[in-house]
């Protein structure tokens, strides 16, 4: 018996880069790995090669682990940095606070998130220092980690100078520095720097490198630049249900994305589509951009009537930002035609 499934939406959407499919490079690597038998639980050639390629990419020796999704990557990495009586300093809009269902607290046995304000989704060293020094008694959860997102939940970027300052602050205050890199590829593409320049050279201790949003079928990489933090981390992965028995199928797509620079090429394309969309929105009356477009996300304020009209035409996008605020996210497979079609409908809706 065969089952027919309507495979896709009627058009490419702008709600999330999670909507997009698998890149050709990742798909081919997955197909290549799907031949014959291979050792289970990560003891295979594909997993070893993918880890080595990440070490080559970051130009340093580091410990690498693969998980199914970003929530697990962030939560397990943070748990490795903390004791249950510690706290994690993060932006009030950080994904670990707003969209991970308490997973960081759960996997760390209760480590508390301390929320910091900041423009465009970024925290600054002064806010970190204030949070650390305002209390030091035993009744307060002891600050242990700074967690930042690159690119941020508002689509902004930490510059090299900002990262340097945060890294120095972390060192001075004896804090670890964690980076949620769900869209790390877009950040590297936008800043036009080598990956090492915005990670370990600026004091980042562990990076959760997003694979799904850049075009992998599933899977994130946890990269420990300070290898001592990775001690017995494989046990955390196993206990949390993140040790894939057929690990080669998590690892192989990374090889496809890394071996000829596809990861960066696709990220540059997504960023360019976002820039095109941003320019177009600026030219439409009654629309205000909420933040500069730095990577592959565009944030804008639209009239409520326009939002309703666009949704009635089948467009999908998120409106979690606040009254009238919308987020349009470009993906590796977004086209100029997709952008122009959306802009045309926005103009009609705002007319």
Task: Describe what you observe in this structure.
This protein has 351 residues and is of the alpha/beta class. It has helices at 24-33, 45-58, 70-81, 95-98, 103-107, 125-133, 160-172, 184-191, 233-239, 248-258, 262-282, 304-312, 336-350, and strands spanning 63-67, 86-91, 112-116, 142-149, 176-181, 206-210, 220-224, 288-289, 297-301, 325-329. Strands 1-7-6-5-4-2-3 form a 7-stranded mixed β-sheet, with helices on both faces. Strands 8-9-10 form a 3-stranded antiparallel β-sheet. Strand 5, helix 8 and strand 6 (206-210) form a beta-alpha-beta unit.
State the main characteristics.
single chain; 351 residues; alpha/beta; seven-stranded mixed beta sheet; 13 helices; 39% helix; 15% strand; globular
Strand order of the largest sheet: 1-7-6-5-4-2-3
Residue stretches low in confidence (pLDDT < 50, at least 5 long) are none
Separation, N- and C-terminal Cα atoms? 50 Å
Report the average pLDDT across residues: 96
Overall radius of gyration: 21 Å
Backbone shape: globular
Structural class: alpha/beta
Instruction: Write down the secondary-structure element order.
Output: HHEHEHHEHEHEHEEHHHEEHEH
Number of strands: 10
Continuous helix count: 13
Percent strand equals 5-15%
Helix percent reads 25-40%
Largest sheet: 7 strands, mixed
Secondary-structure blueprint:
Blueprint: H1 24-33, H2 45-58, E1 63-67, H3 70-81, E2 86-91, H4 95-98, H5 103-107, E3 112-116, H6 125-133, E4 142-149, H7 160-172, E5 176-181, H8 184-191, E6 206-210, E7 220-224, H9 233-239, H10 248-258, H11 262-282, E8 288-289, E9 297-301, H12 304-312, E10 325-329, H13 336-350
Parallel strand pairs: 2-3, 2-4, 4-5, 5-6
Antiparallel strand pairs: 1-7, 6-7, 8-9, 9-10
Helix pairs in contact: 1-10, 2-10, 8-11, 11-13, 12-13
């Amino acid at each position: 018996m065969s089952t027919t499934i309507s495979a896709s939406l009627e058009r490419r959407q702008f709600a999330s880069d999670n909507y997009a499919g698998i890149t050709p490079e990742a798909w081919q690597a997955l197909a290549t790995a799907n031949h014959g038998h291979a050792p289970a639980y990560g003891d295979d050639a594909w997993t070893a090669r993918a880890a080595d390629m990440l070490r080559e990419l970051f130009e340093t020796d580091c410990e690498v682990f693969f998980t199914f999704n970003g929530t697990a990557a962030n939560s397990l990495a943070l748990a490795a940095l903390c004791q249950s009586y510690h706290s994690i300093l993060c932006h009030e809009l950080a994904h670990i606070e707003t969209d991970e269902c308490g997973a960081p607290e759960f996997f760390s046995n209760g480590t508390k998130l301390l929320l910091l304000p900041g423009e465009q989704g970024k925290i600054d060293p002064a806010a970190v220092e204030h949070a650390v020094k305002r209390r030091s008694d035993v009744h307060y959860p002891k600050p242990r980690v700074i967690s930042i997102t690159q690119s941020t939940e508002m689509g902004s970027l930490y510059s090299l100078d900002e990262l340097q300052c945060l890294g120095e602050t972390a060192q001075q205050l004896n804090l670890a520095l964690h980076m949620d890199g769900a869209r790390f590829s877009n950040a590297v593409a936008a800043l036009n720097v080598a990956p090492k320049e915005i990670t370990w050279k600026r004091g980042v201790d562990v990076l959760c490198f997003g694979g799904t949003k850049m075009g992998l079928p599933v899977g994130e990489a946890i990269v420990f630049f300070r290898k001592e933090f990775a001690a017995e981390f494989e046990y955390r992965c196993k206990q949390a249900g993140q040790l894939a028995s057929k690990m080669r199928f998590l690892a192989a797509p990374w090889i496809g994305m890394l071996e000829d620079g596809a990861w960066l090429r696709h990220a540059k394309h997504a960023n360019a589509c976002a820039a095109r969309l941003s320019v177009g929105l600026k030219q439409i009356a009654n629309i205000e951009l909420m933040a500069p477009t730095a990577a592959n996300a565009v944030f804008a304020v639209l009239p409520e009537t326009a939002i309703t009209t666009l949704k009635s035409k089948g467009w999908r996008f998120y409106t979690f930002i606040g009254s009238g605020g919308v987020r349009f996210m470009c993906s590796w497979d977004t086209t100029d035609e997709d952008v122009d079609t959306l802009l045309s409908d926005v103009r009609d809706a705002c007319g």
